[in-house]
Amino acid sequence: MSFNTFGHLFRVTTWGESHGPALGATVDGCPPGVPLTEADIQPWLDKRKPGQNKFTTQRQEADQVRILSGVYEGRTTGTPIQLMIENTDQRSKDYGDILQKFRPGHADISYHQKYGLRDPRGGGRSSARETAARVAAGGVARAALRALVPGLRITGYMVQMGPHKIDRAQFDWDQIPENPFWVPDVQAASDWAEYLDGLRRSHNSVGAVIEVTARGMVPGLGAPIYAKLDTDLAAAMMSINAVKGVEIGEGMDAACLTGVDNADEIRMGPDGPEFSSNHAGGILGGISTGQDVVVRFSVKPTSSILTPRRTITIAGEEVELITKGRHDPCVGIRAVPVGEAMMACVLLDHFLMDRGQTGGQRGQIG
Amino acid sequence: MSFNTFGHLFRVTTWGESHGPALGATVDGCPPGVPLTEADIQPWLDKRKPGQNKFTTQRQEADQVRILSGVYEGRTTGTPIQLMIENTDQRSKDYGDILQKFRPGHADISYHQKYGLRDPRGGGRSSARETAARVAAGGVARAALRALVPGLRITGYMVQMGPHKIDRAQFDWDQIPENPFWVPDVQAASDWAEYLDGLRRSHNSVGAVIEVTARGMVPGLGAPIYAKLDTDLAAAMMSINAVKGVEIGEGMDAACLTGVDNADEIRMGPDGPEFSSNHAGGILGGISTGQDVVVRFSVKPTSSILTPRRTITIAGEEVELITKGRHDPCVGIRAVPVGEAMMACVLLDHFLMDRGQTGGQRGQIG
Amino acid sequence: MSFNTFGHLFRVTTWGESHGPALGATVDGCPPGVPLTEADIQPWLDKRKPGQNKFTTQRQEADQVRILSGVYEGRTTGTPIQLMIENTDQRSKDYGDILQKFRPGHADISYHQKYGLRDPRGGGRSSARETAARVAAGGVARAALRALVPGLRITGYMVQMGPHKIDRAQFDWDQIPENPFWVPDVQAASDWAEYLDGLRRSHNSVGAVIEVTARGMVPGLGAPIYAKLDTDLAAAMMSINAVKGVEIGEGMDAACLTGVDNADEIRMGPDGPEFSSNHAGGILGGISTGQDVVVRFSVKPTSSILTPRRTITIAGEEVELITKGRHDPCVGIRAVPVGEAMMACVLLDHFLMDRGQTGGQRGQIG
Amino acid sequence: MSFNTFGHLFRVTTWGESHGPALGATVDGCPPGVPLTEADIQPWLDKRKPGQNKFTTQRQEADQVRILSGVYEGRTTGTPIQLMIENTDQRSKDYGDILQKFRPGHADISYHQKYGLRDPRGGGRSSARETAARVAAGGVARAALRALVPGLRITGYMVQMGPHKIDRAQFDWDQIPENPFWVPDVQAASDWAEYLDGLRRSHNSVGAVIEVTARGMVPGLGAPIYAKLDTDLAAAMMSINAVKGVEIGEGMDAACLTGVDNADEIRMGPDGPEFSSNHAGGILGGISTGQDVVVRFSVKPTSSILTPRRTITIAGEEVELITKGRHDPCVGIRAVPVGEAMMACVLLDHFLMDRGQTGGQRGQIG
C-alpha cells in the first residue's frame, strides 16, 4: 500500500474527488482471459449506491461504471483496467460553509495542515464517495476469483449498530439481502430500523460493526511476515473511511481467552484437516488454513450531523458548526459492500502472490 | 509491506529463524547523520529479552545486537544498516515432537500447507523470536526520530490481561517501567501478578491488550488513501505474532457512539488547535492532527501450553499434543516493546514520506 | 517500476489501448500547491501529436487532455491526478489482417504467448500510443519541477538518424524547435529530410538516437544502490516502445576510454565544484553531481513497413505480411518529447525521495 | 527497485561497505523447496573473487559466504535467506588520503553532497565490493531457476576491451572459461593480455563491454509497460558500478538499421516459432519470445589510477591526487559474473511474477 494504491500483484489505484467530474480505479495485474463487462461490476455499485432508502444519503448518483481499457471482446487482456464513474450530482452549494470551517470528526483540519490547501466540496478526496471506486475494483476481483477459486463466497453483513449486537443464535445467511442493514438476524433488522429512525430524527448518527466472511477458502494464502493475510486485511479495512478498529477471528476478545479455550483443535476429516472452532478467523501465522476467513471492523458514527458542534476556522476563530448536507445516519450500512470489495481484492492479490512464489502447490496432509 | 519488508521510505526487512545461527533486520532509508551505536539499540532489546522474570520464557538469549553496516564513526551514512543478533541458545531438543505434529494455534499447519516444508525448530520463521529484529529496527527509528521530531515520546503499556482491564482513573505514566507488566496502574500490577501466577501453575495462558501512545506528535503525517497513518499502524500491529485486533482511538467501541458523542470539538489554544476529546486517536482522514496517536492491539493467549490438545500429524493421524518448551504464560507482556518499535518505525517512515511529498510545510491556522 | 506504474514517490500509472475509448495516466504523489491546468500539459502533447508533418503518421488524433481529479481552483491538492485523453480516431479497419498474423518486430507474438489473447487493434496496449499518457504525466512533473527546482531545463533532441550523426561542433540549442526532427544541427536537419523522404517512398523505415539533457541540475539526486539516478533513467528510457539501448554520459563508448581520459577532473569555481569534462553524464555512484545529466537512447526502425515480411499465423501457417496502416518512417522523431517526459518524471521523483530521506540538505564544499 | 532492494517477487536487498565487518544480501521471495547450500553459491563468488591473476586487484578476500537463514536441511523454506560475507582484509591505511580529497570519477563528491558525510574507507557503500553480495544472491537465483526453468543457461563474457572487439566469426562458447577475460575468442584473449599489461604498467586503466546471454529461454516473461523484461534488465545492469550503457539485442546500433533489415522474420519450426535473426535480443514489447535474451553493458575504465589527476578537497582547495590502493586495470573483467548474477535474478523474478499473474499458461501457436 502506498499513497493511493493497494495490492502487490493485483494493484488498485483509486482516484477522484467527491465533486469532481469523475472518480475511478486503475486496476493493474488482473489475470488475462477473465470474462468481464460492466454488467459484472454494476450490481456491486448498485448495492453501495446512495439514496436507496431513508437510511442512506439522499444524494442521487447514477454510479454507472465504464470500462475504458483492459478488456477486449468481453475478456480481460492482462493490461490495466480503467474503471470510471462520472459524478452526476455535483451540486456543491450545501458545502459553502465548510470552506473556512473545519468540521469536527472530518479530515478538513488534517488535510489543511498537511497539504496547505484542500478541495472542500463534499470533503474532496477524503469523502466516502471514494469507496465507490473500491467497490468497482472489487467487482473485477470477484470476476477473477470466480475463475480461479471456484466455490469461494465473500459475504459482508452488519453485526452491531450502536450498542445493539445481533443474536448469533439467530444467524441466517439468507436474511442478509432481505433488509436495508444487510443483517443476518431478522429481529435485529426490525429493531434497528426503529432505533435508527429515532436517531435520524434527533439529528444524530451512530456507529456500527461490519463482519465479512470468506467461505470456501483455499489454504496457503498470505505472505509472512509483513504481508500476512491478516495484515493486509487489517490495512485494507482500516483504510476505509471512518473505520477505527479491525478484528480477525476472536479479535479484541482474544485478550480474554485462555490458551486452553483459544486452541482450535484439529481433526482429520474426509477432505482434509478440520477444526473444532475458529478463534483464529481462518488464519494462522498470517497464512490461510482453509477455514472461513472472518474479519470485522467498526465504523464510527457519521461526523456530519445537524446538531451544532464547536470548531474553529482557518483564521483561528472559534465558531459553532452544523454540517448540513445529505448524510447517512449510519455510514456503516454502506460500508458493507466496501468491506466485501476489499476482501475480494486482498484474496485475489494473495492468490496471485502465492501462485507466483510457490506455484500454488500445497503441502500434503494424510 | 511485502513479504518480509515493511515501510515506504524507511524500509525494514527482517530475516532469521528461531533456532538458526542468527536473525536480524536490514534497515534501509534511514536519514544520514543520525548518531547511532549499538548502545542506542541494546536497551530496547533488553526490555524485550526473555528470562527476566517468572512471567516470561526462561529461554536464555543474550540478544546482543551488532551493527554490521551503515554507520561510520558513530553516525548513520544513509546506506543500509544491518542489525544482527546471534542466537546463542539454540537447543532444539524440546521441539523434536512437533516435527510431525501440528501444534494447535500455531502456524505449523499453515506453513506446511503453503510451503510444503518448514523449519520446525521453535516455530522457525513464525516464532515470536522474529520480533527481536523489529525491536532492533525500532531502536534505529527512535534514534532518527529523536533528531527529527524533538519532543516525540512513544510509550507502550498493557491495559488488559484476560478479562482484567486497568482503571483509567488510576493511570500513571510513571508506574509503567516499575512493574513486570508495563502497566500504568499500580493496583492492576499487583492483582495481575497473582492472576497470572495461577494460570501458569495450571498449565494455561492468557491474552492481553497493549496500548501504544505517541505524545508530542506533529500534524500532517499519513499518506491517504491507502497508506493512511492508521492504515499503516494497523498493518504494523497486526503483523506482530498472535495479534488478532487493532484499534485506533475509540476502536471497536466507536460503533457504540453517537455522532454527537464522537465529535472531537476543536478550540483555539495558545499553540494552535486544541481538541475537547480524542475519540479519533489523533488521526483524521488518515493524517495526524497533532493530538496523541493512540493504538491498541490484542494478543491471543500463548498457544504453547502444557495442557494436552487434540491435533493431527502430517500423515493425517489424530493425536494429543502437549507443547513442551519454555514459554510465556502471557506473550502480551513482551509484545509491549514490539508495539513501541512498530510505532516508531511507522512514524519515522511517514515523517520521511511527508517531507518528501510536501516538504513538511504545514497549512497555517490562525 | 511494477507492471504499469513507475516511480517511487511520484508515481505514474498509465492505462489504455491504442483503439479503446480513451487512455491516460494516474499521477500519484504530486506535491500539493503546484499551479496546474490543462494548458500546462497540452503543449507537450501537441509536440508529440501525430500528423504534424509528412514524417509522422497521418493518424489524426486531437490528443486533448482532461484533468479529472487532483486539482482544485488551478492548484494541485496532493491527491491523485487523473489525466484522460480520449481516442477520437479509432478506425480499426486497417488492422483486420493482423488479428491472425503476428507482425515481425511487433509484440503481437509475445503478447499472445504470455496472455493467451490480445487486443489486436493497432497493437492494443503495446502501441506507441501509450506514450501520449507519459507525455501528459511529464507535463505534471515539469509543472512541479518549475516550482521546486528553478532553473532546471530538460531538452530532448535527435543526434542520429540511421547512420547519420549530428556534427557536435555545429550544436545549437536554438535550432532544436526549428525543424521537424528536433535536431540541434541545421545542416543535419536538411540532410535528414531528404534521406527520410527517400526511405519513406521506398516503403522502409529507419532507427534513431535521441539525447535528453537536463541543465541547471541540483546535486544529490539518486538513491543508491538500486534506485540510482542512472538506473532509474535507464529503466525509464528502456521502457519506451522500440528502445534498444540506453547510455549515460559516455555510454557504450566508455569502453574505449582509458582511466586517464575518463577522469572528469574537478576544480573549484565561484559557485562550487566545476568539472573539466562530463564523461560521467552528471552522475557519479548513482547520484547527481550538479553537472548536466545526459542520457541517450536508440530507437529501432518502425516495424510496420509496407515491404512484405515473412511471418506465421496463430494457427502456425507461414505467410507473408505487409503492415498497412498509418505509420512513421522514423518513430524516433516522436520519441523526443517522450524521452523528455520520462526525464522530468524521474528527476521529480528523485527530488522528492531525496527530500524525504535527507531533507534536501547538502554536504558543504569549501 | 528502491534504495537497496531490487526485484518484485524475488527481492534482493544488499547491504554493507567495502571495509566494514561484513556485507551481504537479504534474499526474499525465493520459492520453497529449492536445494541450496553454501556450495551452490560459493563457485560464483570464487569466479568474481579478486586476486586471482595479475589483471585483478591484489586485495585478498576469502569471500566465503554463509547462509544465516531461510534454509532448513539443505532446502529453501520460502522465508528470507540471509547471505553474509565477512570482510577479512579490511586494511584501510591505503585510503587515508581520500578522506578529505574527492577522487575524480568516483562517488566521493556525490555521496558527500547528498549525505553530508561518507564512509571513505575503500569507497564505503559505493565500492564495487558490493557486487559480491549480488553474485551471492545470483547463486540463489540460479539454484531456483535450475528447478523451475530446466535447460536455461546464463553466460556472461567480454566482447570488447578498450577499442578492441571480439571477432564474432571466432565466437566459441567453450573458450569463455579458459582465459582470464571470459572472452569467447581465443585470439582476443591473447591480444588483450598484452594490451592490458601495457596499460597497467603505464598506471592507466581501460573500459570494456560485457555481454550476457540467456539460452534455453521460455516465452512470456516480462511485465509491460514499466516492468518489461528489457526495462528490468536495463535497470539491473545500469545499477552495477561503473556501467554507463546498456543494450538489448541490436542495442545502440538499432539506430542504423532500416525496418527491412531489422524485422526478425518468423517461421514455424518443429517446436514452435523460429526467427530468422535476433535483432530484438529475444524480447518484443517487453516480453520474452523464447529466443536467446542478449544484453550488453559497458563498463568505464577504473577511476582509481596511479596517474595524478586534479581535484578538490572538502574545504574547497584544488589539489592533485594519485589514487593508491590495489585496483583492477579493467574492472570489466570482474563485472562478468556480476552481469550473470543480475540476469539470473531478473529472470527468476519475472518467472515468478508471470506465474503469479497468468499461471504460466501460454497462448498456443499452431
Automatic annotation (TrEMBL), chains A, B, C, D:
Name the enzyme's class: lyase
Mind listing the GO biological process terms from this record?
Answer: amino acid biosynthetic process; aromatic amino acid family biosynthetic process; chorismate biosynthetic process
Q: Which residues bind FMN?
A: R125, S126, S127, N241, A242, G285, K300, P301, T302, S303, S304, R326
User: Any one cellular component term from GO for this entry?
Assistant: cytosol
Per the UniProt record, one Pfam family is Chorismate_synt
Keyword NADP in record = yes
Q: Which reaction does it catalyse?
A: 5-O-(1-carboxyvinyl)-3-phosphoshikimate = chorismate + phosphate
Complex formation = Homotetramer.
Q: What does this protein do?
A: This reaction introduces a second double bond into the aromatic ring system.
Protein's name in the database: Chorismate synthase
Species name:
Pseudorhodobacter turbinis
**Gene encoding this polypeptide?**
aroC
